[in-house]
Amino acid sequence: MAKRIVVDPITRIEGHLRIEAEIENGKIVDAYSAGTMVRGIEIILKGRDPRDAWAFTERVCGVCTTVHALASCRTVENALDIKIPPNAELVRNLMFSAQQMQDHVIHFYHLHALDWVDVVSALKADPKETSRIAQSISNWAKSSPKYFSDLQKRLTNFVNSGQLGIFANGYWGHPAYKLPPEINLIGVAHYLEALEWQKEVIKIHTILGGKNPHPNYLVGGAPISINIDEANALNMERLNIIHKQLKDAKEFINQVYIPDILAVAPYYLEWSKIGGGLKNYLAYGDLPTNGYNDVSSFKLPRGIILDRNLNEVIDVDGTDEEQIKEYIAHSWYEYEDGSSGPKHPWHGETKLNYTGPKPPYEYLDVKNKYSWLKTPRWKDKPMEVGPLARMLVSYAKGVPEVKGLIDTVLGKLNAPASVLFSTLGRTAARAIEAAVVADWALEFYNQLISNIKNGDTRMANMEKWDPETWPKEAKGVGMTEAPRGALAHWISIKDKKIDNYQLVVPTTWNGSPRDANGNRSAFEESLIGTPVADPEQPLEILRTIHSFDPCLACSVHLYDEKGTYVHRVETF
Amino acid sequence: MNNKILIMGIGNVLLGDEGIGVHVINSLKKKTFPNYVDIVDGGTGGFHLLSYFHDYPKMIMIDATMDGNPPGTISVLKPKFASDFPTALSAHDIGLRDLIETAIISNGLPEIVLITISIDRIQNMVMTLSPEVKNSIPGIISLIQKILSSS
């Protein structure tokens, strides 16, 4: 008889996710993933000016903020057939790259590393030996015995104060932690250094987007003017700051993030056999170098891999109404025609219909509806999205930078490419992507400088800014890659207003409930076969779920004063 | 060390009263302040906000709380620990407490005056404020001016 355990909420993620897993003989035999918050941005957008949609969509989340704005601008540009100037593309690429690098580093060090790094064990480390290991894996300067011994003292004081703060939610001492104390101490040191670094790199958003958080975007281009001598424009001083941040980012990723992954992975190689889950991978791709309409120019290619066949990449088309569709068979929504779908997002509806148990409850009714996430499918197939999907599509397409780095990492770990299809592979793919993007970001910067030197300062195409120039009806799709996976917005414009707007976000692909045919989505499938040593401390579930970098923040998350969960969404 | 003061409102304007902190910032932007005062819409900024805690020696923060008081009640506190801040109300993502804890462990906290406004509930998919909460804005602004003139 299987025993069902509930992990609710999954900690150290953005938003509220609940996992119910059935365990038999110490292994997970079935799993259910439930987004227990509702997202209703689509309802807010109806009837508004399409040119304003980006500003609303980027407010749904404090993490993916710029990528929603990007997807939104693109969907409107796609609907109205607006081509943006090359400089605007470069500015968007630079903001995309800064977001990707910052988010991957934060995800690894601050949301995921503590699944592998035991903070309390770091107190027992020998600072000299820690220094020796650190210097053997990287040239990073902060690696002296004194540096680690000072840090250890600070950490000891912190733990002794009883205010564990950010480290309070760990399962310290759990037998599944395998790192020696010295590598744990390196992990904690870089946890803190990454905090410092991330707040610098994101200043790129403040410069290019005018403000941060929630930087400014513009349908038709980028809302920033270039004038290298003007104080309030994108001038040489500001460009130099961007250049410095990009160089620092490259150094941090190559000297800290990548070496840490390589140092930690050998202790957890069994996790290259766990957590693989689905065998289909979807990437919309991004970083165009010849305009968004030229998909072949994307640095991160678009495509689908089926059944882990790396010899073939299949095209994906967001405008083909037979490809991407959403089911609501197990989601708390209803479609007007009474069906459970699937519906292409242009025909998507957001009508809430909560039929779940009244909180507090023990278990969800998983035979029926059990999540606020819809269930997207590509030609009825479930897909994994995220850094692993992007790196696999890039690898299969032969993107040289990606292929080179993946082969190097696999060589160092002495492992075949099949280890990528796993929890560990997902975590490694994220680091590999950060390193590749760090190089590309510098290319974008150099291209921007070269354009400016050649006298091209165009930043926006305002030909179709005036709604009088628009057709009576138009439809568009805007695709991008959030750090955690494929993100797209679909819009229908009618009489100059938004008639329908639908978002299909990465965690909806990965964390959705089963479809009408009973097929599991990525989170659910990835947990099957995962060992759980202690059901009271299901660290293993966190490892795999965190490896996807879930984000459900685009919804409601609500606690009372005492911290107990209260379910009070007005629309019930 | 500089003598700059940051006024930062946080919240999600897509969730009705939960966005009161940002609504206050929008009102403040229409007023003039001494040049050592900066005003920031923190939105749902999460980790993006960390640098502000390190760049300013003094901050005035404005946030919503569900503390059981009548909606629109204004409270002022000088928090020292993360547990002094309201629990995560909404899609403040990595909640404010996590952010404060992160700021504490990385560089320590600046002097913070936290102004909370009691709200009754989070209205999903509503961009307007309830009358009780909206009517608290003039009081919050004069409170901020009082704090500024005494610092």
Walk me through this protein's architecture:
The complex is a heterodimer of chains A (572) and B (151). Chain A has a single domain (3-171, 182-547), classed as Cytochrome-c3 Hydrogenase, chain B. Chain A has helices at 41-45, 53-57, 65-80, 86-112, 127-137, 145-160, 181-201, 203-209, 236-264, 387-397, 400-413, 423-453, 506-511, 522-527, 539-547; strands spanning 3-7, 17-24, 27-35, 281-283, 303-305, 324-327, 375-378, 473-482, 485-494, 497-504. In chain A, the strands form four sheets. Chain A has a three-stranded antiparallel sheet. In chain A, helix 4 (86-112) packs parallel to helix 9 (236-264), helix 7 packs antiparallel against helix 9 and helix 12 packs parallel to helix 15 (539-547). Chain A is built from 15 helices and ten strands. Chain A is of the alpha+beta class and 572 residues long. Chain B contains five helices and five strands. Chain B has helices spanning 20-28, 50-55, 96-106, 131-134, 137-149, and strands spanning 5-10, 37-43, 58-65, 74-77, 111-118. In chain B, strands 2-1-3-5-4 form a five-stranded mixed sheet, with helices on one face. Classes of the chains: A alpha+beta (572), B alpha/beta (151). The interface between A and B is large, with 48 and 43 residues.
What labels would you give this structure?
heterodimer, A: 572 residues, alpha+beta, Cytochrome-c3 Hydrogenase, chain B, three-stranded antiparallel sheet, B: 151 residues, alpha/beta, Rossmann fold, five-stranded mixed sheet, 5 strands, globular
Outline of the structure:
The complex is a heterodimer of chains A (572) and B (151). With 572 residues, chain A is of the alpha+beta class. Chain A is built from 15 helices and ten strands.
